[in-house]
Hints:
The protein is α/β, with parallel strands linked by helices. The protein is built from 19 helices and 18 strands. The chain has a nine-stranded mixed beta sheet with strand order 3-4-5-2-1-6-7-11-12, sandwiched between helices. Strands 15-14-13-16-17-18 form a six-stranded parallel beta sheet, sandwiched between helices.
Amino acid sequence: MTSVSVLAVASEIYPIVKTGGLADVVGALPAALNEHGIATRTLVPGYPDVLKALPSAELLLHWPDLYGGPIRVLAGSHDGLDLYALDAPHLFARAGNPYLGPDGKDWPDNGIRFAALSRVAAEIGHGAIPSFVPDVVHAHDWQAGLAPAYLHYDHRPRPSTVMTVHNLAYQGQFSPDMLTTFGLPAESYRIHGVEYYGTISLLKAGLQFADRITTVSPTYSREIQGDDGGMGFGGLLRERSGVLSGILNGIDISVWNPQTDPQIAARFGAEQLAPRASNKQALQQRFGLEPSADAMLLGVISRLSWQKGLDLLLETIPTLLSEGMQLALLGSGDRDLQDRYSALAHAHRGRIAVVIGYDEALAHLIQAGADALAVPSRFEPCGLTQLCALRYGAVPIVSDVGGLADTVVDVDEAAVAGGAATGVKFGPVVPEALAHALRKANLLFNDKVTWRRLQHSGMTTDVSWRDRAGRYAALYRELVAAQQG
Ligand code: ADP
Ligand code: GLC
């Protein structure tokens, strides 16, 4: 097997900077790809936390000016990841959320910040670092979307390019006045270029010019070719369907391992489920819920945004309460949702509890202690929390969309198609269907044998990266073979 080298380009990476699943994927793929003979280096912005994580980094490139200041590319490794950090103090020396300023709004220069990231990626693609000339440049989400466009318009020998869409809702739109600032030629401002409803879309740049497009589940790859799911890109994606594919995400099963997890109260496995009860107790205590083994405890770990459908869950609270269930929610995001959930917890102490914030350790305890995990998303490119839930024996209750549809097998679905059920799915994504799913889950929960079987099937489902990374490896190899042929 010949070795293939890949430059991944992304705006966040676990365990250094994370706002969502993108970071998990970008952080976990390199090790999994390595098992398939793929050597990955990942270019990330040199935010303060990134530079701190690379104390003895090596200086590889130095340019006196890129978008108003000097930049350096530093190489180093952290936690097994080979990283290139784009040290550009005028763009990235800002602590906190990578995209938002202290006012909670996008930084006004986000276009330039991520154009710089993409420009440097393109130059590395062209061979700016002689010791690492990648065969493939792999761009993740809009922040890296200009990389394939730059490589296209540079008209120089170039590596192959892959654009992965983690979420089509984030489109990286900027004023058309930015065209020259971005260093794009005038001819690029057209329908089959970067023009998008009178703006420049950096996501579109990637979708238009990458050799291959992938997204993070097969179902989402079909949904985004439709007018609704396409969110404005349906036509483009239909046109490019021949180079578009869906590859499911996995999770890092060493970080998410209930048999060794140091962040939970008691360790357990598919064949030793009994200790799980201690995690439920610990979770109830931590959240101030009534100690009860019999009440079904529903967990939620989520960004609070329209996408995640948590306003629909609010509407089903009467059902949840009348069924005798409990709710433990960990999340942050929309102010309105935060307030509504906090008010609800106040009104139903002991039955409903909410932690507003971001807390990795608590996320582990919820997965280990909740009986079920709800993911009622309106759309979901892949979703990672339901994969963690499967692995931890928290039965997922999910809407039948995107990656949720591809990774959870409903009880009724299994009865018809065979195979082992792992959860409960509902559709359409409306409160009535969710309420029905909650009642159905509670019935199953009260049948201990069936519930244990559901947990066991989930826990023995392969949610790792092993085979899924193999699909990326095969894609890269195809591209390299085409280059050589
Ligand atoms: P998305 O990327 O759309 O937010 P995913 O399900 O792909 O959704 O990934 C979310 C990731 O972020 C998971 O690793 C999940 O555990 C984590 N996460 C989300 N919200 C929180 C939170 N409030 N505290 C801790 N972890 C969270
Ligand atoms: C996005 C999507 C989520 C996906 C994650 C990683 O944040 O919303 O569904 O799992 O990216 O690909």
